[in-house]
Predict the 3D structure of the following.
Amino acid sequence: MQIQNNIDRIQASIRTTAERCGRNPDDIQLIGVSKRKPAGLIRDAIAAGHKNFGENYIQEAMEKIDELGRDAACWHFIGHLQSNKAKFAVKYFDLIHTVDKLKLAKEINKQAAKIGKVQQVLLQINIAQEDTKSGAAAGEVLDLARSISQFDHLSLQGLMCMPPFFDDPEEARPYFRAVRIIKDEIAGMNLPGVEMNHLSMGMSNDYAVAIEEGATLVRVGTAIFGRRD
Ligand SMILES: *Cc1c(COP(=O)(O)O)cnc(C)c1O
């Protein structure tokens, strides 16, 4: 019940925010970030009609997805991905948000080819150049997009970012805006196999600002599932 209330409240706020800034609310998908939360809570959210979930850790995600069913929801991988786990990410996830290196892109392409899948991916940008975060540097993403465009089993859908945490979400705005500009730049390159329809940005604290700056996928954990211990 609580989860359903939380989702309803956030969906309503997504609508209001979108309408206020002249966007179509249907262009924004809410991803429930369920890392370190039990499968039972995800099941409750699915029962309440929710479809998109984000997970950060491959092993944990595989256990929960096996329990709930691969086709029970749309699964998003949003954690740091090591090349040696690419095989599992390809098997379990509809969209991988965190491609940040050519080596990783190559491995995902190879694993997707093996199972005859075209894997949808986003490029993660480390927009504030934080040492503690993964993601490609802003200056690297154009080249990465060109490379990915040449892989038959990858379909680049857009960009993902996670700016620094600020108490005042307004402070995240310049980072969201910068990522959007890079997305438009890549879109303008008209690369084959590259769509650039998505911007994965905004979390519990700052999703409204992210929507104002063009987010299409907001990744909300705490505000749906409660605090993580
Ligand atoms: C944990 C996490 C989120 C959700 O964060 P909340 O503040 O709990 O909403 C979103 N994106 C990524 C990449 C995360 O790791």
Notes: The chain has a mean pLDDT of 97. The pocket of pyridoxal-5'-phosphate is lined by residues 33, 35, 56, 78, 162, 203-205, 219-223 (CB under 6 Å). The domain at 2-225 is CATH 3.20.20.10 (TIM Barrel). The chain is about 40% helix and 20% strand.
